[in-house]
Amino acid sequence: MSEDAQISRPRRVSVIVPTYNRPQMLRQALASIRALEGPDLTFEILIGDNGHAPETATVAAEFGAVHLKTSEGGSGEARNVAMKALTSEYFTFLDDDDVLLPGAVRPHLAVLDAKPELLGVIGQVVYADENLNPTTPPSPAESPGKGDALIRAMLGDWFPQVGTTVVRRSVLDLVGLFDPRHGEDVDWFLRLARTRKVEFIATPCIL
Fold first, then answer.
1. Which of 56, 83, 127, 160 is the most exposed place for a label (fewest CB within 10 A)?
2. CA 21 to CA 9: how far, in whole Å?
């Protein structure tokens, strides 16, 4: 393959979406993922479903997503079943009651390209009401730091939202899956931060 052909090939990112009996919210979430696609970026959407709403499979098919069932409860288990199936070089997360903002993912990939030593990049969240009307400015407003400073921030009064993060697939080998016995998100992000290979960017990612 020529160098020009390699450059023009779109990047592919897997999106891990846990869901539990919320097909209408899930539809909004999946629509926001597909809306972000373009000639330079495509998504593999992997839905981990531990609910029992029959509409979920229909919504997944509507957006060309892979629908993966699990009988284990909790968002961590739903994420795990989807993470085991991902095939892209990078992956991110989106909860079924959140939506991606237009500026998400691409800035993360740019940082990961520029800094191959990094494993992941964390951005900002914008909190919203049930109608997705923003209620806060992007958070955190300032960088929580990197390395030990990032770990201290996570042990203090700040914690990243999973949907603001893009990581390399190699994180699966180094950090592993979510552990439902130990606070799931908190435990997984602390394991990621302990690699000292994660940075923050001031980019609003999810609503």
1. 127
2. 36
Q: Could you report the per-residue pLDDT of 38-77, keeping only the tens digit for each? A: 999 999 999 999 999 999 999 999 999 999 999 888 889 9
- Tokens 């998100």 locate to 185
Which H, E and C letters describe 41-55, residue by residue?
Answer: EEEEEEEEECCCCCH
Q: Quick one: tokens of 144?
A: 């929580």
CA proximity to 113, closest of 86, 146, 90, 88: 90
Phi then psi dihedrals of residue 204, to 5 deg: -65, 125
Specify the DSSP class assigned to residue 181: T
In the block, residue with structure tokens 């606070």: 183
- Nearest CA to 44 out of 88, 96, 6, 11 is that of 88
| CA-closest candidate to residue 68, choices 81, 52, 53 | 81
Backbone region of residue 19 per phi and psi (left: phi > 0; alpha: psi in -120 to 50; beta: other values): beta
Helix (H/G/I), strand (E/B), else coil: 104: coil
Q: Is the pLDDT score of 107 beyond 60?
A: yes
